[in-house]
Write a structure and sequence with these properties.
mainly alpha, 3 helices, rod-shaped
Length: about 100
Amino acid sequence: MVASLAGSLVHVTCKESLRVSISGHSRNMIQPLNVSNDLEQAVQINTNGNLDLGCAVVEKAAIEKALQTIDGEITGQLAVRSKCRDAVGPAFLTQLLIYKVL
């Protein structure tokens, strides 16, 4: 669930800014080649070809970071609960059952 949410959120938020960035960098790299007739077409082809790859890389990084963060939080909370449970002793319900039996 975390992976799906993180992936979808990143895909939606980064796609347009990544498109603008790739387009700008492509234009700056292709301009010195003096391809003035087909400059925009070359930029569009390069942008469309690399946009999905860029989004996939960003999504993967975000998913890995989200899973790492969630796993760390869950592990920490479980450790705290386990420590408290071990310090208190048997659960309240167990003590109640023992009391009623006696």
